[in-house]
Write a structure and sequence with these properties.
With 319 residues, the chain is an alpha/beta fold. Helix content is 46%, strand content 15%. The longest helix has 16 residues.
Length: 319
């Protein structure tokens, strides 16, 4: 598939996930086969006011190309400003607009998926971003605010406003992450657009991704929650697409991956902060393993690097 001038063999992408898709985790996913990675969602207003922590979230890792930064906001001029600043950077290849986040603290400010309620404002935002960006512009959204049929007029507007691709999560805002993603409605949108369509929702293994692509005809797949504790899912999806076998990492390999991720994180921040941020990742890695609940309770009391590594090694040795 193509997004503007950018070409992708399979169109297998890592979704922006708040508090998850930092440089270290994106590197793991890239090594596994993710063809495009996204920053965590960042506030255009925070970029406008030059917030240091927000600017840090937009940093690409070494050799991380192509790389997309996702911005959110409801003020066209500020969104345009953010796009202009970001598109001037050589390490950023795509500007993505979030019009799909369903969480309360975002929608209460008329941002994220709340923009689906105001198609004229959304159109102004997209046009302003496109006007100010030298890079391809994409939009991530949902099937609707409350009504799934919202997506048809909204997707046509996105196409006519000049975006280079659209990503659709197969749920409404009201559904949040519950229920089942509607791949069929994404198929119908795909059939109505010329714009490349990327599908998102309920992709937890290689077979899910293959079924989604075959059933909906989407150009690409965006993996969100299915990557938690499984950064190798991209390799699994690629294998499924190519009809070859995939072997899940052995337990000792998962242990080494956890420790490697932790050590890489510690190079970017102090060790205590790295441990605190890594604890949730460890919980995702061991989900479903024997004795994982007790192990998770233990690691969430640990704040020191040496101690958590010792507990990781002990758990995997005895598991």
């Amino acid at each position: 598939m193509k997004i503007a001038h950018l070409k992708f063999k399979h169109g297998i992408f890592l979704a922006p996930l708040a508090g998850v898709t930092d440089i270290t985790f994106r590197r793991l996913c890239r090594n596994s086969g993710a063809e495009l990675t996204f920053s965590e969602m960042v506030s255009a207003k925070a970029l406008y006011y030059k917030d240091r922590k927000t600017q840090e979230l937009t940093a690409a890792g070494e050799g991380e190309k192509p790389f997309a930064v996702q911005i959110f906001g409801s003020e066209p001029e500020i969104m345009g400003y953010a796009a202009k600043v970001l598109s001037e950077r050589e390490d950023i290849d795509i500007i993505d607009i979030n019009m799909g986040c369903p969480v309360a603290k975002i929608v209460k400010n008329n941002e994220g998926s709340a923009l689906m309620k105001d198609i004229k404002l959304s159109e102004k935002i997209i046009k302003e971003v496109v006007k100010n960006s030298d890079k391809p512009v994409t939009v991530k959204t949902r099937t609707g605010w409350r009504n799934e049929n919202d997506i048809f007029d909204f997707a046509l507007m996105i196409q006519e406003a000049g975006a280079d691709a659209i990503t659709i999560h197969g749920r409404t805002q009201q559904q949040m992450y519950g229920g089942k993603a509607n791949w069929e409605i994404i198929k119908r949108v795909k059939e109505a657009l010329v714009l490349p369509v990327i599908g998102n929702g309920d992709i937890f293994c290689g077979d899910d991704a293959k079924a989604f692509k075959e059933q909906s005809g989407v150009d690409g797949i965006l993996v969100g929650r299915g990557v938690l504790g499984k950064p190798w899912i991209f390799e699994e999806i690629k294998a499924s697409f190519e009809g070859i076998s995939f072997k899940k990492p052995e337990k000792n390999e998962i242990m080494e991956l956890i420790i490697s991720q932790l050590m890489q994180m510690s190079l970017l921040m102090d060790e205590k902060r790295a441990v605190l941020q890594m604890r949730k990742h460890i919980a995702w890695y061991v989900k479903g393993m024997k004795g994982c609940n007790e192990f998770k309770r233990e690691i969430f009391t640990v704040c020191e690097m040496a101690e958590i590594i010792e507990k990781i090694k002990e758990y995997f040795k005895n598991d």
